[in-house]
């Protein structure tokens, strides 16, 4: 078994579920840095063309944002919806128990909510970087936009580049792929012995929590171990409030001592069971 950072015991992250949820990542999305770039002859901003290359790139970015990747349920997300959906409100239980019928409804719910829920069911694209002229009164001779693409299982960085190129609607834009990692394999759950030991250690430490697989939308080093183990799991053994999750990698990042003690208890239980 490989255990790395990942999910945690959280509240208020799933529609209609009020109980704490212990989310264990059984897979993770890939990611790719993709760049859109254009060149021009530059010039003075007092006599601009109809559309500068910065404007053309911005228009392409808007088109890309307005045309999201298609809805897709991977095994980790499907298991999470099934597990947590059973503890949701009647309306949500109805949807999750009949996804063959309400798939479109769930797609609209995820797109409207955005954030983590939407990232569980599709490849996402975030516009994160923009560059152009070095002076306000000079047309940029070279401009670009950086996109951070989080790849759903079944998508590849190469296929994402071609889709974005097509959606941009501008053949003059050059697309360049930067550092990329493909989506991980999915780890086993169900009656697998390693999964059951991990699940039991979580339940004994946080008995009030619903233990569920989920798809990790961030990246971890554990993806490198998928080649040698089918039991790669991602779980940060802490119960975190929304405020505490917001502090991760932020200023004044911290964790209460009593929650750290729970973390130690979890690892003791897990190691004793192995």
CATH class of the largest domain: Alpha Beta
What are the secondary-structure elements, in order, as H or E? Answer: EEEHHHHHEEHEHEEHH
What CATH calls the topology of the largest domain is: Alpha-Beta Plaits
Give the count of structural domains: 2
Provide structural commentary.
The chain has 274 residues and is an alpha/beta fold. The protein is built from nine helices and eight strands. Helix 7 (193-205) runs antiparallel to helix 9.
Quickly list its features.
about 270 residues, alpha/beta, Aminopeptidase, Alpha-Beta Plaits, four-stranded mixed sheet, four-stranded antiparallel sheet, about 25% strand
Topology, element by element:
Elements: E1 2-10, E2 21-28, E3 30-39, H1 53-65, H2 75-85, H3 90-97, H4 99-113, H5 115-119, E4 124-131, E5 142-151, H6 157-168, E6 174-181, H7 193-205, E7 210-216, E8 232-239, H8 242-246, H9 257-273
Parallel strand pairs: 1-8, 2-7
Antiparallel strand pairs: 1-2, 3-5, 3-6, 4-5
Helix pairs in contact: 7-9
At a glance:
This protein has 274 residues and is of the alpha/beta class. The chain is built from 9 helices and 8 strands.
């Amino acid at each position: 078994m490989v255990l790395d950072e990942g999910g945690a015991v959280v509240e208020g992250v799933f529609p209609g579920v009020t109980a704490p949820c212990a989310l264990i990542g059984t897979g993770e999305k890939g990611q790719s840095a993709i760049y859109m770039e254009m060149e021009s002859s530059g010039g003075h901003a007092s006599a601009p063309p109809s559309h500068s290359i910065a404007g053309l790139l911005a228009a392409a970015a808007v088109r890309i944002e307005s045309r999201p990747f298609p809805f897709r349920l991977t095994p980790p997300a499907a298991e999470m919806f099934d597990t947590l959906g059973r503890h949701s409100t009647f309306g949500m239980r109805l949807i999750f128990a009949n996804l063959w019928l309400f798939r479109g409804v769930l797609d609209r719910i995820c797109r409207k909510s955005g954030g983590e829920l939407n990232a569980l069911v599709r490849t996402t694209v975030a516009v994160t970087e923009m560059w152009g002229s070095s002076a306000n009164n000079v047309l940029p001779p070279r401009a670009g936009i950086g996109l951070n693409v989080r790849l759903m299982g079944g998508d590849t960085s190469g296929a994402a580049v071609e889709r974005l190129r097509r959606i941009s609607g501008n053949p003059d834009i050059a697309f360049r792929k930067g550092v990329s990692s493909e989506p991980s394999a999915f780890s086993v759950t169900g009656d697998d012995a390693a999964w059951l030991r991990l699940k039991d250690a979580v339940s004994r430490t946080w008995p009030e929590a619903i233990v569920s697989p989920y798809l990790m939308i961030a990246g971890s080093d554990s993806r490198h171990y998928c080649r040698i183990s089918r039991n790669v799991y991602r779980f940060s053994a802490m119960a975190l409030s929304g405020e505490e999750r917001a502090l991760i990698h932020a200023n004044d990042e911290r964790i209460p001592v009593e929650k750290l003690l729970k973390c130690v208890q979890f690892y003791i239980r897990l190691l004793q069971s192995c």
